[in-house]
Amino acid sequence: MTTKLTTLDLAKELAKVGNDDFNDRLQTLIGVVSSDIMQYCRRDFVKLARTEYFDAPDQQFDRGVKIWVKETPIDLSATFEIRYNRYRDWSDTTPLENIANQPDLYTVDVDKGLIILHLNTWKAPRSIQVTYTGGYDLDGDLLASPIDLSYACAAQVAFEFDREINNEIGRTDEKAKGADAKVLASAIGGFSPEAMKRLKGYKKLLVGRHG
User: Fold this and answer.
1) SS3 176
2) Helix, strand, or coil here: 201?
């Protein structure tokens, strides 16, 4: 089942489709574009329990060790654990210290997925394991996406649909010789500017190891 990041109604509105003749095609495009967005953002957006592993930098302890988990928002009402050791090793015999029950030792930004560990150099972690629940709720195959993420997906669907209807990858008519040509050229092989400007804030860095 493909997770869909936007609704058919919004895709039809942006594609300026006033009937149901293209519903099946638009639904297919919603699935394809949703997958492209997830790949670009390096995340699946779905609310799930997750365990991720991080190597702490050697010198960062004066301002706290900062790590970013893959999915947001973090649900602190679910299981939340921060374990660490002082070695770069995650064997089954490695002793782990859980500090999730010591809130004075860390802060969490649930929307950004940022965790800052406030540990002194004597307790400096080298390997960190975070168990948490993060992401957005899923209703069937439709994600409860934030408005801007849903709009970005629908805008890209409308863009792709327009190109299909016009049977083109880039326009060669007189209109395309103006500013519109620049918009189309920047989207060849990627996202339209309308979608891209809303997606940048959702793209995750390649950090940690995700289990």
Assistant:
1) helix
2) helix
Does residue 210 form part of some domain? no
Listed residues 86, 104, 134: the one ending a domain: 134
What is the token pair recorded at 114?
């940022």
pLDDT at 42: 92
Q: How far is CA 31 from CA 35, 146, 158, in A?
A: 6, 17, 13
The DSSP result for 3-48, as a single string, is -BSS-HHHHHHHHT--SSTTHHHHHHHHHHHHHHHHHHHT---B-E
Of 115, 134, 153, at which residue does a domain stop? 134
pLDDT tens track for 151-161: 999 999 999 99
d(CA 162, CA 26): 11
Number of structural domains (the chain) is 2
Domain around 97: 48-134
